Amino acid sequence: MKQLLSQKLSPQQIQFIKLLQIPTVELEARIKEELEANPALEEGDDADDDFEDQEVGDDSSDDTDDFDDPDSEFDNPDNTLDEDFDDSRSEEQPEIELPLKDEPVDQKESDSADDLDLSDYLNDDEIAGYKMQGDGPGEDEDDREMPLADTSGSLIDNLLDQLGFADLDEKQEAIGRQLIGSIDGDGYIRRDLSAIANDMAFAQNVEASVAEVEAVLHVVQSFDPAGIAARDLQECLQLQLERRPQDEVTEHAERILNETFDEFTKKHYPRIQQRLDLEDDELKEAIALILKLNPKPGGTGPVGMGKVQYIIPDFILTNDNGILNLTLNSRNAPDLRVSPAYTDMFRAYDKGAKKDKKLKEAVTFVKQKLDSAKWFIDAIRQRQNTLLRTMDSIVRYQREFFLDGDESKLRPMILKDIATEIGMDISTVSRVANSKSVQTEFGIYPLKYFFSEGIATDSGEDASSREVKHILKEIIEGEKKDRPLSDDKLEKMLNARGYNIARRTVAKYREQLNIPVARLRKEL
Where does this protein have compositionally biased stretches of type Acidic residues (predicted)? Predict the structure, then answer.
């Protein structure tokens, strides 16, 4: 015999967790899905109906309770529904609350005393699709992307339209469609032409040689946008130069790409100048022309693969003469209620045949849907409360930043700081911070932006790593472009400003800012 102590989440807790971690855009879709799946849930203001749990034996008026509370028909001790069907009476559901990590969990609170198994009427996929690993975020949660609205068309459709106007026979057109289908999001064809020919032979029963595929490839590469269907960056830039006026600058740029491409990618400009025998002005003009070309043609044009996107913020923060006002996005506060029509069905039972089998099945179904609707409404309300409590704590912690938007005023802040202040588990704060954003007077920021580590300073106080990155970016932007600063020099400059930071940390922050090393930042 082996005795194990384990913690199990109730279906209500799982539902709350999943609702908490999704942003506004997905919440709207989730509510719509629930409205379609549960007829006992409907949109509307519940101001006239009280859906809060009522204690058994409440001394309030029976008439008022029976009319206002949709659960009164089956929570009322005088109701004989469960007795007639030989089912035990369901206990009142407690308010959904996730325990803190060190808080013991009473297993009895998460077990239902009702003989109706929750799995009978909760969506199986809803629970089976959720995985909890410890107290941290789930595997899918870490890399959850901010949901963005798609307002663009397809580059593939545009290329297929151009293919239709090309003077090709049936076989060549089939090859062209295969090539266009092989273009990736950046606009490149990175697969070998022999592999594409093999795909056509197996999938379409079309025999084509590599030479035939390459011939059609040249046709596709003549389509708009310029540089499309290139096999590498060098070919992409060359295709774009071929469409430019063939003047002296274009000729020098083509020579640089054809003869000294490796030196160009490493910015070894003196070697290029010496090898091609170019004057300073000639080299500078040619390099400037190449840098204007598009290295990712797949994202260009009115119907490019790149999406024109926007973010819908979850919070809105305004500054009223130094008073910060925080509100949830109105889409985060839907008006939902339990359908009164379904509670009327319980009243109808008292007037019907109480031993009727079909009636028992119908009433059981209604009870399940009412329970599910009530849990969903409670989860939505608790989600709103948790979001506001967490964001309100962040606003208080980073008040100086929210007043004027100065990044240097961001304080070091980690998940544990907020979790301790609001009395919740770190995993709960993590779910709120993940994929959520706030709209301020200075722009829209993801909540993750406000969490950063502390860097020791000469004054003895910790500075936010965000502040250090901001200063690092300013130093690099102000450096001489012909003599960029190395990481060692950047380290000394930051140390001189009072930030105790090592060179490897400077390199890490520089990479996080997507700033290349000094050699690759050099300009003519």
Answer: 42-86, 112-127
